[in-house]
Structures are given as structure tokens and as C-alpha cells.
User: Which sequence fits this backbone?
């Protein structure tokens, strides 16, 4: 349970960092970041997984870049649902997905070194 809470908090912190890096990607505080990270996680686990399964051949052809497109769509959908979390267009959503993926990889790499 503690690991899940830490993952959620790290995802929220990653969203806050992305909002500092990517223009057009805004998060107004820790609480909206926590809610947005939970909604993004839920959407990726449900609708995102469905889309990734359906578009698997396209993901192979693009060497996985299309997965970032799906993640960007989930981020845009989350920005429509969660107040205090705003993404102004597809380009900030795409670059936000790229930065979120890189931050996730970095957090996992540092978390495994024990």
C-alpha cells in the first residue's frame, strides 16, 4: 500500500515538474496534481489500454512513438475532467507525455537502486 501511495505522489510531482517545463501545460497546486495523476492513471489503465491493444500494429510500425500519441490523448481528456489541470492543445499534451515518460523512467531507475 505504501508503494502505491509513493507512486501516486511521484506521479503528481512529475506533473508539477512538467508544468514548469512544457509551455501550455498548467497545474495549479499539489491537490489538482494528485487528482490529475489518479485520473490519468485510471484512463491509461482502462481506455488507454484498450486503445493501445487496438493500435498495436501502428505502435510497432512507429517504434512505439504512437504510444505517446495515446498518452497525450489521455492527458488532454484528463485536462477536460479535472479542474486546476489545464493543457492548451495537442502539442503541449504530446510534449508533456514525453517528459512524463522520461520522468517516470528516472523515478523508477532511482527507486530500484537499493
Assistant:
Amino acid at each position: 500500500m505504501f508503494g502505491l501511495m509513493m507512486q501516486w505522489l511521484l506521479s503528481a510531482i512529475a506533473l508539477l515538474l512538467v508544468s514548469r517545463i512544457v509551455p501550455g501545460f498548467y497545474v495549479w497546486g499539489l491537490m489538482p496534481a494528485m487528482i490529475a495523476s489518479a485520473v490519468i492513471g485510471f484512463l491509461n489503465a482502462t481506455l488507454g489500454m484498450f486503445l493501445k491493444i487496438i493500435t498495436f500494429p501502428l505502435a510497432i510500425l512507429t517504434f512505439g512513438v504512437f504510444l505517446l500519441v495515446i498518452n497525450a490523448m489521455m492527458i488532454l481528456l484528463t485536462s477536460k475532467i479535472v479542474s486546476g489541470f489545464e493543457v492548451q492543445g495537442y502539442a503541449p499534451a504530446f510534449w508533456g507525455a514525453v517528459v512524463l515518460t522520461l520522468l517516470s523512467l528516472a523515478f523508477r531507475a532511482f527507486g530500484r537502486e537499493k
Q: What stands out?
A: The mean pLDDT is 93.
